[in-house]
Amino acid sequence: MPLDSELSVTVMGLGYIGLPTAAVIARTGAMVTGVDVTPSVVDTINSGRVHIEEVDLDGLVSGVVARGSLKASLTVAPADVFVIAVPTPFTQDRQPDITFVLDAARAIAPVLKSGDTVILESTSPVGTTEQVRDLIARERPDLKLPGATRPGEQADLAIAYCPERVLPGRILVELIDNDRVIGGITPRCARKALAFYRRFVRGACVTTTARAAEMTKLTENAFRDVNIAFANELSLVADTLGVDVWEVIRLANRHPRVNILSPGPGVGGHCIAVDPWFLVAADPANTPLIRTAREVNDGKTDHIIARAAAMIEAQDGPVACLGLAFKANIDDFRESPALKVAAALAARFGERVHVVEPYATTLPRAFDGTGARLIDIDTALETCGAMIVLVDHDIFRSVPLDERRGKAVLDTRGLWPDQS
Ligand code: SAJ
């Protein structure tokens, strides 16, 4: 590969993963072009600003754009390495939708040249990297593709799968420090992609096949979903038995080989609530546990809505829903169970529902026409006799018992263990 300053990299998709990845690669001195289909995203980045909230990302992007090592574009130019980081949603009937991945592959195909490396990072069903290879083979019959060469012949391109595995809120740290799984269509593809990641990853880089790497990513998020489902199921049993589930989990976790996760109002975000379905879709007959975990976690949201509604009915006056984000201390409301609960309560109880969300400036569309209002935590503590804790934001955690004594509280996050 060329020296850092000569290496050119194109990152397809400038979202939560693509933009931080592009910026981190640009910081190494490579010339990075980020490609996105949304003109406002391209304009924002080219003016040195960011369209997403992530710790320290604004400073990094403004620096690499000012230095000229990162630019954004609506069109794809030739590069040495192409990184695809576009969304892979699922359809109404819970089948993976890889249209954006295939669109990105189609967009880069015309500019590919011998020696280039194509890396897919998007969470994808097993076999997607091979589909990318097959699509490029159809678009570019002049290139020799990996896994489709004659004996003794070298492929013109390296194609690999390397899933991102960063945690929102810690993306810039984890992009560098986390271990990476790099799956090549062939071992040579994996080695080529490994040389690329070595430039900016401090964690271990482990090579395997593309299919194993694809399944590894799905497995990681399904593991977490199943374990959160266990905690959520325990919380229902504990409610039935009148036991404090948080205390039980704290005590059980003192066992050296037990590590139970935390119950909550359900599982949100664009990863853990979605990816397990990719495994279920691949083999429905053999995935009863993974499917049930998804259903338990989704069912927990409905359970909280029912409990919160019962609590509101038993009260007079305004009720505060604390938090809309899908988890603590972030501004991301995608697939958020907290938002789902608060919006369902607003639809039913209207202007009695007050929402506290320090990461929002206005209420999301789901609240339109309900009469619900966005207020701050101080106002909520002064005016609301009942509180429903939906997100464990630090600002809520820090409210002392004195300020919430005597209030009716439904705490879905175990934030206020001293609340009687
Ligand atoms: N949650 C619980 N209880 C817990 C932990 C989490 O209810 O004990 C809930 C959270 O509140 C949230 C959801 O689960 O609603 C997911 O949050 P998370 O922090 O577990 O994960 P994400 O979605 O922010 O990021 C995950 C990470 N995957 C794993 O930890 C296996 C991250 O490393 C992945 O990169 C990311 O998915 C992804 O993009 O796939």
TrEMBL record:
GO biological process terms on file: polysaccharide biosynthetic process
Top-rank taxon: Bacteria
Residue ranges annotated for the UDP-glucose/GDP-mannose dehydrogenase C-terminal domain, each copy included: 320-418
GO function terms (MF aspect): NAD binding; oxidoreductase activity, acting on the CH-CH group of donors, NAD or NADP as acceptor; UDP-N-acetyl-D-mannosamine dehydrogenase activity
One Pfam family it belongs to: UDPG_MGDP_dh_C
SUPFAM superfamilies (alphabetical): 6-phosphogluconate dehydrogenase C-terminal domain-like, NAD(P)-binding Rossmann-fold domains, UDP-glucose/GDP-mannose dehydrogenase C-terminal domain
Keywords: NAD, Oxidoreductase
EC annotation from Swiss-Prot or TrEMBL: 1.1.1.336
Enzyme class per UniProt: oxidoreductase
NCBIfam families reported for this sequence: NDP-sugDHase (TIGR03026), PRK11064.1 (NF008286)
Family of the protein in this entry: Belongs to the UDP-glucose/GDP-mannose dehydrogenase family.
Record protein name field: UDP-N-acetyl-D-mannosamine dehydrogenase
Annotated organism of origin: Sphingomonas zeae
